[in-house]
Amino acid sequence: MTSVARWLLVLACVLAWTSPPASAQNACKTCAGSGLAPCRPCAKQRCTNEHEVLFCSLARCKACGGTQLAPCKCAAPAKLDLAAKRAALEAWRTKLPAEVAEFMGREIAVAESAHFVLVWDVPKVDHKRGTDLHGALHLYLDRLEEFHTRFRADTDSKESDFSSKTLAMVWAREADQEKASPKWTLQPSNTESKLMGRAPVFSVFYDKGHMHEEYELHQALVHQASHCLLSNVHNGIWSGNIKGGWVDEGLAHWYENELFDGVRHYCYVEADTLVDFKFGKWEAGVRRALDGGKLPSIFTFTGLHTTEMTPPQRMFAWALVDYLLRGPKKCYGAFARAAKEKKPFGEACQAILGKSAIELERDWHAWLAENYSAEPSKR
Ligand SMILES: [Zn+2]
Ligand SMILES: [Zn+2]
Ligand SMILES: [Zn+2]
Ligand SMILES: [Zn+2]
Predict the structure, then answer these.
(1) How far is residue 317's CA from residue 129's CA, in Å, rounded to a whole number?
(2) Ligand 3 centroid vs 41 CA: distance in angstroms?
(3) d(CA 115, CA 148)
(4) How far apart are the CA of 117 and the centre of ligand 3, in A?
(5) DSSP state, 13?
(6) For the chain, how many structural domains are there in total?
(7) Looking at residue 231, which CATH number applies to its domain?
(8) Ligand 4 centroid from CA 195, angstroms
(9) 141 with 186, same domain?
(10) Is the same domain home to 65 and 107?
(11) pLDDT averaged over the chain?
């Protein structure tokens, strides 16, 4: 996005919640009647977000107080209370950014958007927007926001179905992950860890020994964000320890296959070891099981905790989630909600589809036969 486009976006955000009279919009080309112009002294260190950012700890220009805005030369009355925005930024800095700095013993970048707070400590990533830490921070916050939009659509959820933002932390050093994970995710880890439920958090060490390409970090964040959002939505209850592991792990894997090139992440909640086994392209595996009569009964993997699921059961859970998301009746969201409400799988089938689990299983097998290939494929 060019700086002009970005300025127009900022302006659109400002104007969205103000309503300038039509005549004022023609008044000034710089501010379109908003009375606000980009702050010049911080023109070179501006936030490079494409989605709205509410706060950024790296926006610390003395002239504008980090608002990145200044009164427009045309002297039209400002449509945003800049002093109030400045004070809000100031107050925000004394909360999580200060808490993180104190605990970690140095300042760490933090930015907040509509649905995420991102604590970011990776100096740069291999992407044109990530050539420095500030750019990389906004690239990843934008990606998380894009994922949230996608997640809401796939799970038929509304904004109001979430009780809080997800706190995401990304570290460049293993020692920082080890220090931060027990404090914020309540789970010691030197790889990836998460705290699910009403105020979800995940923390990831960008281990380049495991994540060779830049998109693998993106993939790790999508996998963890999928768990966090699913645990938070509707009722703040994680389905993974109330026999709904299949909706939880199945969806996280589904995003890996749908948005990236196969499954890399397996969550073991107790040990939380990221085991890099069998890089997954699962479609052919499922098809071969179907053809060989080895597809397990749907009941064997839809009533387990996440930790009880074997790798093959995760693969079959993925294929069932795939059917519920891409099959004739898109109803994954309803099944996820049922699992989060501890509804037995058979009961959920009746309530959602008016069918027994056996009938659903028959439909699923027919759909797999039609849609999955035994040849190596993209999925
Ligand atoms: Zn103006
Ligand atoms: Zn910023
Ligand atoms: Zn400034
Ligand atoms: Zn997982």
Answers:
(1) 36
(2) 5
(3) 7
(4) 22
(5) H
(6) 3
(7) 3.40.30.160
(8) 12
(9) yes
(10) no
(11) 90
For residue 114, the CA-to-ligand 1 centroid distance in Å is: 28
Evaluate whether 231 touches 237 at the Cβ level (below 8 Å): yes
The pLDDT score that the predictor gives to residue 311 is: 83
Terminus-to-terminus CA distance in the chain, angstroms? 31
378 lies in a domain?
no
Per-residue pLDDT reduced to its tens digit, 21-73: 445 446 799 999 999 999 999 999 999 999 999 999 999 999 999 999 999 99
CA torsion, ordered 56, 62, 65, 68, to nearest 10 deg: -70
Identify the nearest ligand to the CA of 26 by its number: 1
Q: At what angle do helices 82-93 and 96-104 cross, to 10 degrees?
A: 30
Whole-model pTM: value is 0.90
In a domain, 354, yes or no: yes
Rounded to the nearest angstrom, the distance between the alpha carbon of 115 and the centre of ligand 4 is 20
Domain that holds residue 347: 240-371
| Nearest ligand to the CA atom of 33 | 1
Q: DSSP assignment of 258-318, as one string?
A: HHSSSB-----TTT------S-B--HHHHHHHHHTT-PPPGGGTSS--GGG--HHHHHHHH
Point out the ligand nearest to the CA of residue 69. 3
| 226 closest CA partner among 213, 239, 241, 214 | 239
Cα atoms in the 13 Å half-sphere on the side-chain side of 250: 29
Residue 37's beta-bridge partner residues?
Answer: 70
Q: How far is the CA of 51 from the centre of ligand 3 (A)?
A: 19
DSSP category for residue 162: -
* Region for 366 from its dihedrals, namely left if φ exceeds 0, alpha if ψ lies in -120 to 50, beta otherwise: alpha
- Ligand 4 centroid to 297 CA: how many Å? 23
> Which residues pair with residue 195 across a beta bridge?
201
Residues in contact with 241: Cβ distance below 8 Å, sequence separation at least 6, in sequence order: 269, 305, 306, 307
Same domain flag for 152 and 228: yes
**Nearest ligand (C-alpha, residue 70):** 3
Q: Say yes or no to pLDDT of 143 above 60.
A: yes
Q: How confident is the model at residue 13 (pLDDT cuts 50, 70, 90)?
A: low
